[in-house]
Design goal:
The complex is a heterotetramer of chains A (224), B (226), C (44) and D (249).
Chain A lengths: L8 E12 L2 E12 L3 E5 L6 H8 L7 E6 L2 E2 L5 H4 L2 E4 L11 H12 L3 H10 L4 H4 L8 H15 L3 E4 L8 H16 L3 E5 L12 E6 L2 E6 L4
Parallel strand pairs in A: 3-8, 3-9, 6-7, 7-8
Antiparallel strand pairs in A: 1-2, 1-4, 4-5, 9-10
Chain B lengths: L1 H17 L1 H21 L2 H32 L3 H6 L5 H31 L7 H27 L5 H27 L7 H29 L5
Helix pairs in contact in B: 1-5, 2-3, 2-5, 3-5, 3-6, 3-7, 5-6, 5-8, 6-7, 6-8, 7-8
Chain D lengths: L8 H24 L13 H27 L6 H31 L8 H20 L5 H33 L7 H4 L4 H58 L1
Classes of the chains: A alpha/beta (224), B mainly alpha (226), C mainly alpha (44), D mainly alpha (249).
């Protein structure tokens, strides 16, 4: 496994272009994100937020420009970045026939986490034992989303990439998610997530990148 | 290695829950055996064709199973999560291979019994060992080719027909080898047991070659489509 | 003599399909070459 | 003025030479060479069939080698990948021709269109394998990803062919059926026939080279055109983004 170096920059994009079927979903995005930062990506639909996440996850190829994640050059090597990534995409990545707990357990076994971690993650996302033992096929969208988040928590990745993690969650779960993301950053992980949420009062606003037309249009630092 | 077993266990659990093998593949395979018998409509001819029919049916059932195992991975984008979760691709390959192997083993045992019951094929005492070796090595070969080429087409449109186009020519040696060896095990007049073992050697080489090739190539092939 | 039909057919199919592929290749290349600047073409 | 051709002096020379040699082969095959004492007139198919089969194998060897190089090179340029693809396309054409002319010839000499002899069977599987390879190549996507995936497929095909060949040889030998009449082996060739056959191989090789160069350039144009379109699309997308961002503030 590639060692994570001590460099303080987690992500460095320079004029990154990602063409999907000839369409530049990212049209020259430049941004630098430090280790342990919490970053929200905002912007209208189709401005390249998801593509930026997928680029950082090593899932889509870089067409032009440069992109580095943990000192790995994405132009050369997308595969070794993936080991450090925890991804929550548009879709949840769950197995319909498995129960909520089995899905989380599957991730836990893969990454060598303990059974205790599974129970902790399920509890934090308020997945009760009835839901946990139901096949995810039969769960509601919000319950499925929470199961996917529990898997992500168990995963303990270096880089968390979440696409609309708040969507479909109730208010309590959203607050809990914010706490989880903050905890992740304080333990050294870097977190990027996209959101359409309007700011809720009484909550710290993280660093926010506004995307427009496939580029980073503005970058507003964290406000307390 | 541990990760491979975790993946295999997951695949088998999903299959056990969905009961696809039981509900769709096994009935399909047995139905094909019956239909062949009806189509050929001649008992000596059926007996002569029995081993070939068994393995031809296995080939098509493999396509069904492989499509299914990758459908499970792609329908909710689980494959992307798997790719981005510190799992070595080679472990995903062997995990899926092993799960497919177990299912194909069950299916081929059933089909051999089907041939014995429906077609009147016979296996004398010493040929049982030969038959078991054939079934194990052929099932492993089918599983490795299926898992490998299933990965090539996993994210493509029209993958079902493409999988058949890619995998079937590759499986030709396996079809020939397994059919002839099984013919020998069924006590055919045209092939003796020694030749049967020669074919098993080919099956073993085939299984080893494509397991190794799959282990080497799987990581590069497992690319999500944009 | 039947043979002559088979012989002619073999040659016509062979030369014909080579010709068709060559023609299609050249025509498609002409269509595309218009949209690509000359300095990008390695063979010029 | 943009150049509208993929031709260069080299390809024109090759093309004209190919036409000249093939014209000679046709004339010689039909009018100069004698009929075979055993096969009669049908031997005239040989001058098309044997070179076609020969070039098909050459094409697939080329695809295998260039795919290997394409995969081995650390910083991948697409040149070898495009040659591999072009060569496979031409190879599929020639193998199709070899199969068709072979079965027409077989009908005349064996009385059947098809014999399950090892060489024919292997050739047929090889043909289907490379049709599949081309089908995967033609799926749209990132060119570098296409290059990697097709190179792996081509190397898997290289692995597959000896297994297929060995198994069909074993398959036939165990059956111990009467050995198939081998058309090329049974022909007693005089000097003129040999020279015509040799000319056919030369002519088809020239066609192969010409075709691979042109189709390789065509593939280059395709990739380049995507890039040209991309520049405009990037500019348009950035403008649209700037308008939104500017309007929002």
């Amino acid at each position: 496994m590639q060692p994570v170096t001590t460099n303080d920059t987690a992500i460095r994009l320079n004029d990154a272009v990602v063409a999907l079927g000839g369409f530049p979903a990212l049209a020259g995005a430049s941004v630098s994100v430090g280790r342990g930062e919490l970053v929200a990506l905002r912007g209208a639909n189709g401005t390249g937020k998801s593509t930026l996440l997928r680029l950082c996850a090593g899932l889509v190829p870089l067409t032009r420009g440069s992109a580095q994640v943990f000192d790995v050059n994405l132009a050369d090597d997308r595969a070794s970045v993936r080991r450090h990534v925890g991804l929550l995409g548009h879709r949840n990545g769950l197995y319909d026939e498995l129960t909520s707990r089995e899905n989380v357990e599957f991730t836990a076994r893969l990454v060598g986490a303990h059974t205790r971690d599974v129970e902790d993650a399920l509890a934090r996302l308020r997945i009760d034992s009835r839901v946990a033992s139901t096949r995810t096929r039969a769960l509601s969208a919000g319950q499925r989303r929470r199961t996917a988040l529990a898997s992500l928590v168990v995963r303990r990745a270096q880089l968390w990439l979440l696409d609309e993690p708040h969507a479909g969650l109730d208010a309590a779960a959203r607050d809990e998610l914010d706490v989880i993301l903050l905890e992740a950053t304080s333990s050294g992980a870097t977190v990027l997530y996209t959101t359409h949420e309007t700011d809720r009062p009484g909550r710290a606003v993280p660093r926010t990148l506004l995307l427009a037309g496939g580029v980073v249009a503005s970058d507003s630092p964290r406000q307390s | 290695m541990k990760q491979a077993l975790v993946v295999a266990r997951k695949d088998l659990l999903v299959e056990f829950r969905a009961r696809l093998l039981l509900v769709r593949v096994i009935p399909f395979a047995l139905l094909v055996l019956v239909l062949f018998a009806v189509a050929l409509d001649s008992e000596p001819l059926i007996l002569r064709a029995a081993s070939g029919l068994v393995w031809l049916t296995m080939l098509f059932s493999t396509l069904l199973l492989v499509q299914r195992t990758y459908d499970v991975e792609t329908q909710d984008a689980a494959l992307e999560v798997l790719l981005t979760s510190a799992v070595e691709p080679v472990n995903v390959f062997f995990g899926k291979l092993f799960a497919a192997f177990v299912q194909l083993l069950v299916l081929s045992v059933l089909l051999v019994f089907g041939a014995i019951v429906l077609y009147g094929a016979t296996v004398s005492g010493s040929n049982v060992v030969l038959l078991v070796t054939i079934v194990v090595s052929a099932a492993w070969g089918l599983a490795s080719v299926g898992t490998l080429y299933g990965a090539v087409v996993a994210n493509m449109n029209g993958r079902d027909s493409l999988l058949a186009l890619l995998a079937l020519p590759v499986l030709a040696p396996l079809l020939i080898g397994a059919s002839r060896a099984t013919e020998a095990a069924f006590g055919s007049q045209t092939i003796d047991t020694a030749s049967g073992w020669a074919w098993v050697a080919l099956l073993a080489v085939f299984a080893v070659v494509f397991s190794a090739a799959g282990a080497a190539a799987f990581g590069a092939l497992m690319e999500p489509e944009a | 003599m039947d043979d002559i039909g088979f012989i002619l057919a073999s040659w016509l199919i062979t030369l014909g399909s080579i010709g068709v592929l060559a023609f299609v290749t050249l025509r498609r290349a002409r269509q595309l070459a218009e949209h690509v600047p000359d300095e990008a073409k390695p063979w010029l | 003025m943009v150049s509208r051709s993929t031709g260069t002096t080299t390809t024109r020379v090759i093309g004209i030479a190919a036409i000249a040699v093939l014209a000679w082969v046709v004339v010689s095959a039909f009018f100069i060479t004698p009929a075979d004492f055993q096969q009669g007139e049908s031997v005239r198919i040989m001058y098309a069939h044997v070179p076609a089969a020969w070039i098909a194998y050459l094409a697939f060897i080329t695809t295998g080698i260039t795919s290997g190089i394409s995969l081995a090179r650390r910083h991948r340029t697409l040149g070898f990948d495009r040659v591999a693809g072009a060569s496979a396309e031409v190879g599929v054409l020639f193998m199709g021709l070899a199969l068709i002319t072979g079965s027409l010839w077989g009908r005349l000499t064996w009385g059947t269109f098809w014999q399950w002899d090892p060489r024919l069977t292997t050739t047929l599987f090889l043909f289907v394998t490379y049709v599949g390879y081309l089908a995967v190549r033609n799926i749209d996507g990132d060119p570098h990803r296409r290059a990697k995936r097709s190179a792996i497929l081509a190397l898997l095909a290289v692995l597959e062919i000896p297994l297929v060949h060995f198994s069909v040889v074993l398959w036939r030998s165990l059956h111990q059926e009467a050995s198939v009449l081998n058309p090329d082996g049974d022909v007693r060739l005089d000097d003129m026939m040999l020279f015509t056959l040799f000319s056919g191989v030369v002519g088809f090789t020239l066609v192969f080279v010409w075709m691979v160069i042109h189709r390789q350039r065509l593939a280059t144009l395709r990739d380049l055109q995507q890039g040209v379109g991309l520049d405009a699309a990037i500019a348009a997308r950035r403008n649209e983004g700037a308008a939104i961002a500017g309007g929002g503030q």
